[in-house]
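FIELD: query
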Amino acid sequence: MDMNRRNVLVKFVVACSIPFSGCLSESSNEPSGSTNPETDQNGSADETPEGRVDSVFIENLSETEVRVEVVVHKENGDEILANAYRIPGRTGIEIPAVGIEGEEYDVSVQYDGVQEEDEWSVKDTCIHENESTDQSILIKEDEALAVFTEGCDEKSTGIRAGVDYFDHEKYII
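FIELD: result
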């Protein structure tokens, strides 16, 4: 009688675990390349892509509040970021996880009646782990606009003295 109970219990456990066996697998049933690591309109990633993901920084070095509009398109024309920001003087913001390593983007910035364009190449050639090719949108002290890609071996964006940095969502208008 004890053997039959053991057999019944084993069969029951095996039968109950079969429907859940696929849940433990790390592989996906989706075809290769079907994940979409693109960012949403607020710049946060829906899924984490492999490799480095670079940010867009907007830094206002002037003493006055500024209004900046930023639009980022993938090389194929897909819009991945389109926001307007009102940024106080001496304030910087980071829009994280926008540019995926190895891809290229078109960046358009509108500020004070001036529109600047930049081609942002998120290089996959950075050697050190903490290097990046972040996109920099800089409002200088004289309120002139500069839009550029930071090189792998440079690091000035996001660490300027006398500038307080905050999450970009606080300044979306």
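FIELD: remark
The first strand starts at residue 53 and ends at 60.
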